[in-house]
């Protein structure tokens, strides 16, 4: 057996391949969105090892990513607990995020370099591969890289740090958005339009695309909170 292909959590040598940690991470995300895991539910390392039949290493990596992506917070005895976020909190967060993202757009357009634009193209290609494999965990990681590269190009370290934090806190919006394959496909095209706007230094175009993508994600999430319309009896 080759190194990197060990059962129970080793990484594959094939680029874009799912690791055991990716599988655990993606399945837990799916359970949160499906309602099988509810806010305030706990995630025990021992239980996850038994449930998924993997070693502790990929479970620990998946839990670390769940904390990093804002899904979990620490509960009693430092056990991971599914974070609860209210609709008001989401709306307040997005109001602030939209304002700061708008402020950041001229800085990104002015300061981004050609190598950084090339890196964005490479990231979008990797996002496309993850989308085709329906690898949600990888899609989330790659999309985070895309956003980080954009805000880092502002050359304002405080602004970049705050925007990354706000994005991570809005996990319920972000992950609901990527559950729909059609929206993920649209994101690939929008990423390309964003890159083109940066390359041609179109501030207004870039701002419109960035704010539209953020607003689309929020509207998708809010639509999941509304009950379906009642049908009139015949």
Structure notes:
The structure is a single chain. With 234 residues, the protein is mostly helical. Helix 4 (87-111) runs antiparallel to helix 10 (203-225) and helix 5 (114-132) packs antiparallel against helix 9. Helix content is 68%, strand content 3%. The N and C termini lie far apart (65 Å). The chain has ten helices and three strands; from the N terminus they run αβααββααααααα. It has a three-stranded antiparallel β-sheet with strand order 1-3-2. It folds into two domains: 20-82, Winged helix-like DNA-binding domain superfamily/Winged helix DNA-binding domain (Arc Repressor Mutant, subunit A), CATH 1.10.10.10; 87-225, Four Helix Bundle (Hemerythrin (Met), subunit A), CATH 1.20.120. The model is unreliable at 1-15 (pLDDT under 50).
In short, what is this structure?
The protein has 10 helices and 3 strands; from the N terminus they run H-E-H-H-E-E-H-H-H-H-H-H-H. With 234 residues, the protein is mainly alpha-helical. The protein has 2 domains: 63 residues, Winged helix-like DNA-binding domain superfamily/Winged helix DNA-binding domain (Arc Repressor Mutant, subunit A); 139 residues, Four Helix Bundle (Hemerythrin (Met), subunit A), CATH 1.20.120.
List the main descriptive attributes of the protein structure presented here.
Arc Repressor Mutant, subunit A; 234 residues; mainly alpha; 68% helix; 2 domains; disordered N terminus; Four Helix Bundle (Hemerythrin (Met), subunit A)
């Amino acid at each position: 057996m080759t190194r990197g292909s060990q059962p129970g959590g080793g990484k594959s040598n094939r680029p874009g391949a799912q690791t055991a940690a990716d599988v655990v991470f993606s399945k837990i995300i799916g359970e949160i969105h499906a309602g099988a895991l509810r806010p305030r539910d706990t995630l025990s390392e021992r239980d996850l090892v038994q449930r998924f039949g993997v070693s502790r290493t990929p479970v620990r990596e998946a839990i670390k990513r769940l904390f990093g992506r804002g899904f979990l917070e620490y509960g009693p005895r430092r056990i991971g607990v599914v974070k609860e976020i209210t609709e008001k909190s989401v709306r307040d967060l997005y109001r602030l995020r939209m304002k700061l993202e708008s402020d950041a757009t001229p800085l990104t357009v002015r300061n981004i370099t050609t190598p950084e634009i090339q890196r964005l193209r490479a990231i979008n290609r990797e996002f496309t591969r993850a989308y085709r494999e329906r690898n949600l965990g990888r899609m989330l990681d790659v999309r985070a890289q895309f956003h980080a590269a954009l805000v880092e190009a502002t050359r304002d370290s405080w602004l970049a740090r705050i925007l990354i934090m706000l994005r991570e806190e809005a996990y319920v919006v972000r992950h609901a958005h990527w559950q729909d394959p059609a929206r993920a496909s649209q994101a690939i095209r929008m990423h390309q339009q964003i890159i083109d706007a940066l390359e041609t230094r179109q501030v207004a175009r870039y701002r419109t695309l960035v704010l539209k993508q953020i607003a689309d994600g929020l509207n998708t999430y809010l639509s999941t909170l509304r009950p379906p319309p009642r049908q009139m009896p015949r």
